[in-house]
Structure formats: C-alpha cells, structure tokens
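Entry type: protein chain
Record version: 2
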Amino acid sequence: IPANIHLAKVVEQVDARVHREKILHNHLEPIRSKYDFILLDCPPSLGLLSINAIYTADLILIPTSYGKYSLDGISDLFESIEDVKENQSFDYLILRNMFDARNKQTNDYIESQLDPFKDHVLKTIIRKTEAINQAQMLNEPVFTSFGKTHAAEDFKTLTQEVIKNGNSQR
C-alpha cells in the first residue's frame, strides 16, 4: 500500500477518534489471512499513519540513507516504536539506502554506527542511481522503464531478502 498525499486527508478525518492508533490494524485484520505479505509505505515522520502502521506491523522495515541525520532518526524511531508497541518486543530490519561508493569515509562511518544492529541490517544495499529518481518522476516502479539497471537489480534483491525474512517470522 503506497504512501501518497491522499492519506493526509484520511489522517485528518480520524485524528479525533478514540483508539485512533488501532484503526489501520482493525481494518487490515479481516483481510490479513488473504495475503502472504502486506507492505505499508509510510512517510518519514511519526504521524498518525506511521503510528498505525507500527501498531499493526509484525516486521518493521527501516530504511536509512548514508547520512548522520538518518541515523539520528533511527534512535528516535526506536523510542516511538517501543511506546506504540507498549514495550513489547518487535522485529525490525534496517535497509541501507542511497549508497554511493564514492563516499568512502561517510560509508565507513555509517557502517560503524550500524554495527550494533548488524543482526538486523539487511545484506541488500540500494545504490544511489539516476534510474530511481527518473522512475519517481514518472510515478512508476523502477522495473517498468528501468528494468535492466542497478536500481532494478537492487530492488529485486531486496524483495527476495524481505520475503525470506518475512517467511522466517511465521
């Protein structure tokens, strides 16, 4: 379920409701058994949509780019997840995104900061490529027009790894 601007309207409509953090969970529960996986794309904020997604998630995929602010966001996110999950244990995977091999010092720094989470860091790394930017501008999946690029290869590998990890959660 991709995130888009229309979700902001839904958030406005449910903002004042009781148990609003459980709305998504309650709507997905009746259809959950019909799908092997339900992936929810959330904006990079801790708003109502993200809180609903965290509440209902079995596995949380946390993308991080190769920058310090993204790392800072992870620790804030962990605090929020613990609050939403009411200190229950939760499963998560960290996806390294926007990797640029030319930035060796930055890459080494980020990798060292992720080392304490190494059991939760996916092997897949999404490389920074123009194909991803162009696919976003065209509002289509990278596989559609850029299927023979590094970007498509990275996302195919990510898909396989997420499915493997998701199946092991069951």
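Comment: The mean pLDDT is 86.
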